[in-house]
Amino acid sequence: MTGSRYAAKPWLALLNDAQRGPVRPADSLVQALRRSAAEAPDRACLAYFDGRLSYREVDELSDSVAGHLVARGLERGDRVAILLQNSPQFVLALLGAWKAGAVVVPVNPMYKSREVAHVLRDGEVAALICSDRAWESYLRETAADSPVRIVLTACELDFQTRGDARVLTFERLPQAADAADLTTVARAGYEAPGTRYPGPSDIALISYTSGTSGTPKGATNTHGNIMYNAERQRTGLALPEAPVYYALAPLFHITGMVCQLGACLNSAGTLVLTYRFEPGVVLEAFAEHRPHYTVGPSTAFMALAAHPAATPDHFSSFVNISSGGAPLPPALVEKFRAGFGPYIRNGYGLTECTAPCASVPPHLEAPVDPVSGTLAVGVPGPETVVRIVDEQGQELPFGEQGEIVVRGPQVVPGYWRRPDATAETFPGGELRTGDIGFMDEQGWLYVVDRKKDMINASGFKVWPREVEDVLYTHPAVREAAVVGVPDGYRGETVKAYISLRPGSDTDPDELAVYCKERLAAYKYPRQVEILPDLPKTASGKILRRELRSRPQSE
User: Fold this and answer.
1) Domain end: 198, 224, 243, which one?
2) How many DSSP H helices and E strands does the chain contain?
3) How many CB atoms lie within 10 A of CB 441?
4) Residue 435 is assigned to a structural domain of this protein
5) Which of 512, 414, 23, 411 minimizes the C-alpha distance to 206?
6) Is 361 within a domain?
7) Domain count across the chain
8) Residue pLDDT, tens place only, 136-146
9) Does residue 265 lie in a domain region?
10) What secondary structure, in 3-state letters, does 143-210 show?
């Protein structure tokens, strides 16, 4: 083999060695849930603080959600947006929508009104399932100018700290007249329409990602895409029977959806949920539930390691820990192992390949490239071909840097109603990631840079143009350019360079707050620098690369 193509035969052998029994294919997670409910009906499927839901209960409750949606007029193929944190309600809404034959549109709860509005309109969303507080505070107004005709709300979990005691309270707002209560619906005993259950080629998710342009596009993850990676997770992690997963990654994100929830349902395991990330609560969950596996961005492990209560015992139950979504520094891997025991295994994937396409096998450790100091992200999975190509699409030799392209069962068929973007990103069905990397002769993949201007802040992707568009609405801003700059905690953070209109006056803090009020928390610029003028080409295009190379203040 002269090029950098790698089809992962050694990795497949390692997978087979680690498998717990035969491969168990399923058309969808709905079928996997049914199978697990038949095999272990009384086993805890979901653990939420002190609460438990068995597989039988999750199956029956999500049946009722499906029946309610159909009774309200939801049709097969309609889109259902879910805007919830890591809670049982998210899982019941997801499974219920799928049982109703719908396509789920997971939405980041950090999104502000303008961001949600784009998703609702672009996805032509028919039903919205959200927290009661989000509905009352801004989503009712947002949804009014959208195709949404069915609304279910769920009581959200409030986390409060009183001295040293953590108090968890469910604050239920008065039930809105224009929305049904999800918990009431789940307990109503509706029958699910069995004829609507999805097949492997049906779209399961429209996962919005900025991709290669400023406007978020919906990647169409099929049920087959999800099941491939859910089965790969079940067989490739060397976990015990009935494994316990901790949901460190958010379920609205493709990593949490597939590598935690999907893998759990497919293996009849237990998924531990704790609403959203708070290091102290996470450590308490580790101590109580003794999970075998979790996956999250490197920033989460930095926060856990820095918590004063963290001890090696908190991590002693883990058989495997994975990191993905943000660069994993080799120094963090070693520091974490020295302090707490486990080795964190790297991984690589995108929304467009339904989470992982490369990862570190369970009995190996990722090498570090001696030249760049980059930690390998893993080797490709079975049936997955990763190539490194030049600008003309020609394969490059091992060790040479080029664009990473992926072909395999996890690669989505394209973007929602974007044929031009689909043709550009998936020529011949092969995903052009826009990421720059290389392979060594053993098949280890290294990601060293991005071809795109995308900023990766704590595993969340930020497109500069979206932030710039908000900055340009400020009356004092003349020019704006947004770039990613190194950050010891987030990997990258968002920085905005601004020039002002003549006679205008503002300051960096005011501009940052302005963006914070209009963008999700991970998108607004943590750093703002005002310059007399921004560097440009002769044609007037702002030179982002020159701004990236500017010295950064300490």
Assistant:
1) 198
2) 18, 27
3) 11
4) no
5) 414
6) no
7) 2
8) 999 999 999 99
9) no
10) HHCCCCCEEEEECCEEEEEECCEEEEEECCCCCCCCCEEHHHHHCCCCCCCHHHCCCCCCEEEEEEEC
How many CB atoms sit inside 10 A of residue 189's CB? 12
Q: How many angstroms separate the CA atoms of 47 and 86, rounded?
A: 11
Give the span between the Cα atoms of 491 and 450, in whole angstroms: 14
Q: What are phi and psi of 9, to 5 degrees?
A: -65, -40
Round to whole Å and give the CA distance between 347 and 324: 5
Encode pLDDT of 294-347 as tens digits. Answer: 999 887 898 898 899 999 999 999 999 999 876 688 888 888 999 999 999 999
- How buried is 340 (Cβ within 10 angstroms: 0-12 exposed, 13-18 middle, 19+ buried)? buried
Range of the structural domain that residue 123 is part of: 29-40+50-198
For residue 465, give the CATH number of its domain. 3.30.300.30
Whether 191 is in a domain gets the answer yes
The CATH code of the domain that includes 114 is: 3.40.50.980
pLDDT single digits (tens) 390-411: 999 999 999 998 999 999 999 9
More confident residue, 368 or 12: 368
Confidence of residue 184 (pLDDT cuts 50, 70, 90): very high
Distance of CA 235 to the CA centre of its chain: 21
Which of these three, 177, 198, 219, is where a domain ends? 198
Cα 250 to Cα 93, 157, 164, 260, 548, distances in angstroms? 15, 15, 26, 9, 30
